[in-house]
Amino acid sequence: MNERVAQLAAQLSERELDALLVSNPENRRYLSGFTGSAGYLLVTPQRQFLFTDSRYTEQAGSQSPHFEVVRMKAGLGWLLDALKETGVRRVGFESDNMTVASYNRTLDAIRDEEELGETSLIATTGITDELRAFKDKEELAQLQKAIDASDRAMEQVCPTIEAGMTEKEVAWKMEAAMRQFGADSISFNTIVAAGPNGAMAHHRPSDRAIQAGEPIVIDMGARVGGYCSDLTRTVVVGEPDEMFHRIYNIVLGAQLTAINTVRPGLTGEECDALSRDIIAEAGYGDNFGHSLGHGVGLAVHENPRVGPRAENVLEPGMVFTIEPGIYLPGWGGVRIEDIVVLGEEGTKALSKAGK
Ligand code: ZN
Ligand code: ZN
Fold it and tell me: Cα of 151 to ligand 1 centre, how many Å?
């Protein structure tokens, strides 16, 4: 049994579950090491199964030595057999991930088996997701590679942006550069939002030509070894005007304050307030509509939550973004985003791209 499965097994007994059926792809990978695109895990404290189809059984065998690899065939016989063999009764499933159709199919199949008359499916949320909020050494090393790829791309491409280039052209240059610096892929669709487009926090790059003097919000990420980076910088071609200086300095001050003062024991909501209060005091509280940040790892958005209603407590070992912004309709936006890891004494910034 690997360390992560041992932690999960402890969670199962706390929740009075005999087993967990894992369908979420990131959770599957996190627990088993298996990187294929299809499969399920059934984890009990005694036995761990990895079900996958014929494309992946060989790969699964080498990537997941702690799991019994079972080849999936049409129907659900592979699952029913494992349930019978292990005799588990209270089987949790991931209700954030499993579709209603899949749940119904599984439940019907179990009810059709006399031998599984005592077996029930129990909705769970967040068990493995909560373990994933804490990053071990190996994960931090992968994350740093992804972060370095986007940092280096940002630093290489920004000085080459000229008036007249389109948002799409800049997005493509960034994506190509991230690949050049080691990304396996991008971790989400790159955002390049110039001028008034920047007032929309998640604008898609368009054919709009960038103009000198307007703010350009660039939000992008690389994926390396499954781990995602997420980086935002706001830049200007030519000379920024006074308005830009003012808004940029408020956002930067709000961001640095949160990075420098967040401590273990604060909730996500309290961390969010470290930046939000500064932006509100400056008169732009209504122009910062999204959460301050989010956890990042195998998924680009994961635990912990860092926002106005996030009750989760931030603890050492957690990795999350800090990304305040101000968005002014008709003018544009400024957002600055870095990834930090929380230690006993405070944060360490993992992103190093210039601001
Ligand atoms: Zn981002
Ligand atoms: Zn983000």
Answer: 12
